[in-house]
Amino acid sequence: MAVPRITIGSLRKLAATPGAAPFSSLTCYDATMARWLCRAGVQVLLVGDTAAEMVLGHQRTSDMPLDVLLALTAGVRRGITTATTATDAPPPDGTVAPLLMGDMPFLSYHLSEDEAVRNAGRFLTEGQADLVKLEVDTTFASRVERMNRAGIPVCAHIGSRPQRAAMTGGYSSAGRTKEEAAAILHDAKVMLDAGCPMLLIEAVPDELGQAVTALCTAAKVPLIGIGSGISCHGQVLVLTDLLGLTDKSPSFVKRTANLGSAVVDAARQWVDLVARREVGNSPYTSR
Ligand code: KIV
């Protein structure tokens, strides 16, 4: 059986269907995880700039180099292709070919419109992504419109914008005052007008999440939420938070595994096996 391919079109249909079950999204930074997340049926994989922290060990997402993020995106694409193309064994039931979203890092779309459009295009050509995500407010409208018009679909990331953390001294929620909430709702309207086929909203109060969901539903545009209530059409989390691989995670994270401890257990067993010279004695053969 062919593996269902998740497209912007299929998610738009879902956003326009009353009562449809929300879709799931996770960050993903490598081909191995991509294979397993496809088999789990995760509909959208985001190669987020959180790779700066989760992969490269930086303290801030703004330290993410563009070329590295492009290489990671291409790796995730290869993982999707491997998981969804029947070779020796057919993909297990429930496997999907997720939509692949590349996250434009800090300063890759801020300096000029031309450079922003060119860098966005690199995510489609070099990264083999299906769309790009940018942290925006209304001041980004014209460059976002140019990207969409050029055929580079943009997911507008509104609400809390981690790339601006230096302005506030750290990551924080957004839209808590009436004025801020109105500004974020306006950002959403402007991004819909700029032709964005998807929006993402981070760390805002439930009521604002609901207001933006209503706006997006009317426009048949899927809204992905993170820490923004349960009304959004889809929900995303940072994978390492979900899997219990981070030492500290935001309060809204629902951890579904404790892989950190599992890794420690497995590695300790290896340490013991090696110390006891019990590493196996079979001769090495190539496949
Ligand atoms: O970079 C990222 O991982 C993100 C998610 C937190 C939404 O933008």
Give an overview of the whole structure.
With 287 residues, the chain is an alpha/beta fold. The chain has a single domain (8-242), classed as TIM Barrel (Alpha-Beta Barrel). It has helices at residues 8-15, 31-39, 51-54, 66-84, 113-125, 141-150, 165-168, 178-193, 206-218, 239-242, 259-275; strands at 23-27, 44-47, 99-103, 131-135, 154-159, 198-202, 223-226, 234-237. Helix 2 (31-39) packs across helix 4 (66-84). It is globular, with a radius of gyration of 20 Å. It starts with 7 loop residues before the first helix and ends in a 12-residue tail after the last helix. Bound molecules: 3-methyl-2-oxobutanoic acid. Residues 27, 46, 48-50, 61, 103, 200, 202, 226, 236, 238 line the site of 3-methyl-2-oxobutanoic acid.
Instruction: Estimate nothing, just give the exact number of structural domains.
Output: 1
How far apart are the first and last residues' alpha carbons, in Å? 29 Å
Derived structural class: alpha/beta
How much helix is in the residues?
40-55%
CATH superfamily (homologous) name: Phosphoenolpyruvate-binding domains
CATH topology: TIM Barrel
How many helices does DSSP assign? 11
Mean pLDDT: 96
The total strand number stands at 8
SSE topology sketch:
Blueprint: H1 8-15, E1 23-27, H2 31-39, E2 44-47, H3 51-54, H4 66-84, E3 99-103, H5 113-125, E4 131-135, H6 141-150, E5 154-159, H7 165-168, H8 178-193, E6 198-202, H9 206-218, E7 223-226, E8 234-237, H10 239-242, H11 259-275
Parallel strand pairs: 1-2, 1-8, 2-3, 3-4, 4-5, 5-6, 6-7, 7-8
Helix pairs in contact: 2-4, 5-6, 8-9
Bound molecules: 3-methyl-2-oxobutanoic acid.
